[in-house]
Amino acid sequence: MSPEPAGQMGRGSLAGMDTPPQVDPAEQFGVVVARRLGFGFWIAAAWIIIIVAAAALAPWLPIADPNETGVGGRMDGPGWSNWFGTDNNGRDMFARTIWGARVSLIVGFFSVLLGICVGGTLGMIAGYFRGIVDRIISFSVFVLLAYPGLVLALLIVGLAGQTLPIVAMTLGIVAIAPIARLSRATTLAYSEREFVAAARVLGATDRRIMVRELLPNVLIPMGALTLLGMAITIVAEGGLAFLGLSVEEGFSWGKMIVLGSSPRTLREGPWVAMFPIGAMFVTVLALNFAGDRLREYFDVRELGIGAA
Amino acid sequence: MIVLARRLAQLVAVVLAVTFLAFTAMNTLGDPLFNVVGFVAAVDCDAVEAGEIEDISGQGGTTLGDCAVVAEAREEFHLNEPLPIRYGRWVGDLIRGDFGTSFKNRMPVSTVLADRLPKSLLLMGMAEVFAVALSVPWAIAAAYRANRAMDRASTIGAFGMLALPNFALGVILFYFFVVKWQIFPSRFEDDNLALRLKSLVLPALTLGMPLAATYFRLLRTDLITTLQEDFVVMAKAKGLSNRWIMFRHALRPSLFSMVTVFGLNTAALIGGALIVEQVFSIPGLGRALVEASIRDDYPVVLGATVVIATGFVIINFAVDLAYSYLDPRVRRES
Amino acid sequence: MATPLLSVTDLQVGFATERGLLRAVDGVSFDLAEGQTLGIVGESGSGKSVTAKTLMNLLPSYARVEGSVMFDGRDVRAMAAERERHFWGVEMTMVFQDPMTSLNPVKKVGEQIAESLRVHLKRSRREARDDAGDLLQQVGVPESKKRLTQYPHELSGGLRQRVVIAMALACSPRLLIADEPTTALDVTVQKHILDLLDELREERGMAMILITHDLGVVKGRADQIMVMYAGRTMEQADTATLFSEMRHPYTEALLETIPRVDMASHSRLVPIPGSPPDAVDLGQGCPFAERCRYCSASCLIDQPSLEQHRQGHACACHAPVGTDAGAAAHAANHETGVTPAGLDMGTFATAVGEKT
Questions:
Q1: Which residues of chain C neighbour A7 with C-beta distances below 8 Å?
Q2: What mean pLDDT is predicted for residues A5-10?
């Protein structure tokens, strides 16, 4: 039988009919599709590791002092002596980009951590105990959610001050509501399952069930969410910095971007803004991608069989 | 009908809770007194009154007479009363349309809001229009050619677009279209509607493009899923054309996710508007909020926050209603 | 005989999958005259649905088709390639197994019936609506006016299937293909639907292809029957002959799976042991060999071709039932207790009678 298109019927079929061949078309049992993390995942992960390492080791790396002016000329373009050029105070952009990573990454990480610890716990409690406890928590979460993230962050930082811990905590608080919602939904789904009923019948206390049975299962989607969450908080911190509401001491990518984006600076030296933009973009992209892949990977394992 | 009434009651409850949260945060985390009278607030005026302190000239350039100002301020802004009562007062004022007075320039907050809000609404409206106008045709085209070159490239493009923070996108667009090519004005021009719209094109695009990317991903996925449903096979068996099937069978059921996100996205939209207004110097509500926040001008912050949060809750409510209209199955149950 | 309405010759349909070419239909031929009913019988994976989909131009783009399909002298495959718009849904229509999923859940039932009328016959909205109401009456749906404005989830399973049938009949097709039309329905409803199809067919002089896994369904309702297995035709004959003189072991086995009223209570049902073969990797011999109690050595290496036993009765088997070869093979297997394919003859024992 010839495999040539000449013998085709069904040309001009709608996209949806063209399921890729892994889905078995001929009424037989499905084919198990092995899910791998994929090449892209490892590239993304590599970038994340590089940037984190660079940020962590920044004080010891053989790069210029990010605060020292006059390292190069004023507003020098990218070149051999200054890889990323210099800004309008003659500071080395490459070093600044690396040092800027520190604030961005620290804020990103700790805020997500706070969000998961508090939000995750709240959600689990709400989802597990239900009833009045759930109603109270859910209502509170809903009210918190009524504040657009940035507005809430603005509110808190504006009131409480602009230090690194506060900024990190603020973003963490903003993260609580959406994470709590997800955690609650996951917990609800899992607590319906038999293994919870089984544990209860065996006399396990509520606390034990929550920690030993539910927590591991809830942690899986949340773990995958960490990377995605970090991407979001890094961007959020960038936004805050852009508005002038992030840390006053030191600088993050967001702050660098706002410093570099006055019309004059853009005209004379767009790289001052573009490099931190690029760094942030690539990092967020990597986090998004890796987070997505992880989520898919664990989702499928959960279900057991792939596509069909 | 009963359901509607219940929902409205919920709405009111949420709005009250929302405003109470903001009010409490403002008044406990910050010190309203400070912003009315400046450094004088640091003076221990109670001690002065009790005659315990004579000379306060060394404390930040204040004078004894300033304590009178403090007392006056306390009276005027009811700062001595307990929190719940102040909240009650405030809500009462709010209902009557009185949002308080700006600490800084003594203008009524409602004036400020009324001036700034329309511009922000216009901006957000344009952004959504762009987003929908971009994403729907794009998603239909991509679903039609699912998994082929155009679709794959689109998915990657959308993914990339979502990774770019909106301030970054704004700066990039600003750089190219305002600084380099000088197509659009560099600040907001208010003279007539046309100019206003023109000034808002870039900011609306900045806000709208990431939205479009999100809508695109949702709609495309849902379309592809819907197109695999049996009733589409049935429609094909009836000899209906691909175009007919796409627009009259597949599109409507696939819009659900997008519509849901439409409402939820308002939060992102508002947050994004804050930033975009900054980049493009639009005198909108977001900018007012940010400036007031930096200046610790609490009535303005509170007023703006309340408007924003309430608006958000109402929009979500409306989306819920729209949802039940779109999907007859849900309509039945509600 | 006058030119048959539908003439399928050596149809072969394969799907290009990761693991190789999946032969869903491998050399199927049949003719169907105007107003006649053909019953296609087989298990899941036998290729019966794919055959129907091929006729209806519903195959995905990675399907490879060969062979000819002629409808009333027109080349159906050519029409598919040319994207002919007003053939399917008009002259040839199809009814699927699950009426719930065949209907668009967010569209009113009346609209869905009227669609074909508006697109193919260019009726106006009102005309189409009235015609839809008539159609609903014809298929036995009470309160047809009211039903027109209802949504699929508001109707019961039987009513939904009637709606689907009404949809299929809208443009007065000359051939209706029904793929397992009753499998998703309650037993009591099944009979009604099948009777309805019979009635409509007679009234309209419509030809029908009835696809099912249940020989009992086609017994009183089809003029000719084709038994398929693993994409191939195993036996093909007119109904009376098939039931009185069945020759293929698979047909015999199928018949035995039907529980009968006159069986003693608590007698065991007789399933066909084993499961359908992997359509990608079929191997050389007869595809049914591994499950057949008449299996002989040649069955494992030599694929039997479809041979005309007499006028109008074809069978693809080396050792057909009721022949000497068949009897011999069966006896030999019975002796050794195991078929050449390794199947234990004991699995064919039933509690009633000694039919091994």
A1: 64-66
A2: 34
Lowest mean pLDDT, pick from A271-280, B60-69, B77-86, C304-313: B60-69
Chain B CB contacts of A280 under 8 Å are: 165, 168
Q: What is the dihedral of CA A195, A200, A206, A211, to 10 degrees?
A: -30
pLDDT in tens, A95-123: 888 888 888 888 888 999 998 889 888 88
Domain membership flag for residue B306: yes
Task: Specify whether B191 is located in the same domain as B255.
Answer: yes
Range from A86-90, A241-245, B124-128 that averages highest in pLDDT: B124-128
Amino acid at C80: A
Q: Which of A230-234, B3-7, C297-301 has the lowest mean pLDDT?
A: B3-7
ipTM for the whole complex: 0.84
> CA-to-CA distance for A181 and C313, rounded, in angstroms?
67
DSSP secondary structure string for all residues of chain A: ----GGG-S-TT--GGG---TTS--SSSPPPPPPP---HHHHHHHHHHHHHHHHHHTGGGSS---TT-TTSS-TTPPS-SSSTT-B-TT--BHHHHHHHHHHHHHHHHHHHHHHIIIIIIHHHHHHHHH-HHHHHHHHHHHHHHHTS-HHHHHHHHHHHH---HHHHHHHHHHHHHHHHHHHHHHHHHHHHTSHHHHHHHHTT--HHHIIIIIIHHHHHHHHHHHHHHHHHHHHHHHHHHHHTT-S-SSS--HHHHHHHT-SHHHHHH-THHHHHHHHHHHHHHHHHHHHHHHHHHHHHHHHHSS---
Closest residue, chain B, to A233 (C-alpha): B165
Q: Is the Cβ–Cβ distance between C92 and C175 less than 8 Å? A: yes
Q: Note whether residue B120 is domain-resident.
A: yes
**B329 vs C contacts (CB less than 8 Å):** 105-106, 151, 153
Comparing CA positions, the residue from A197, A171, A179 lying closest to residue A124 is A179
**Cβ neighbours of C332 (radius 10 Å):** 16
Cα C133–Cα C134–Cα C135 angle in degrees, nearest 5 = 90
Interface test with B, best of A47, A136, A227, A242 (most B CBs within 10 A): A242
> What is the identity of the amino acid at C266?
H
Q: pLDDT of C186-211, one tens digit each?
A: 888 888 888 999 999 999 999 999 99
For the segment C10-61, what is each residue's pLDDT rounded down to a tens digit? 999 998 887 778 888 988 999 999 999 999 998 888 889 999 999 999 988 8
pLDDT computed for residue C329 by the predictor: 82
Distances (CA, A) of C7 to A101, C29, C81, C198: 72, 8, 18, 22
Q: Model confidence at A24, in pLDDT bands (50, 70, 90)?
A: very low
The domain C1-91+174-244 belongs to what CATH superfamily? Answer: P-loop containing nucleotide triphosphate hydrolases (3.40.50.300)
Structural domain including B217 reads: 109-333
Minimal Cβ distance to C94: which of B231, B237, B332: B237
- pTM of the full predicted structure? 0.76
Which tokens in the block code for residue A93? 């952009």
Distance from CA of C78 to the nearest CA of A (A): 9
Q: State how far the Cα of B73 lies from the Cα of A4, in Å rounded to an integer.
A: 88
Residue A13 predicted with pLDDT over 50:
no
Specify the pLDDT at position A305: 35
Task: Enumerate the β-bridge partners of residue C315.
Answer: C235, C307
Asked if B146 and B69 sit in the same domain, the reply is no
The angle formed by the CA atoms of residues C92, C96 and C99, to the nearest 5 degrees, is: 130
Q: Where are the domains of chain C?
A: 1-91+174-244, 97-170, 245-272+281-348
Q: What are C212-258's pLDDT values in tens digits?
A: 988 888 888 899 999 999 888 889 998 988 888 888 888 888 888 87
Helices (H) and strands (E) in chain B, counts: 15, 0
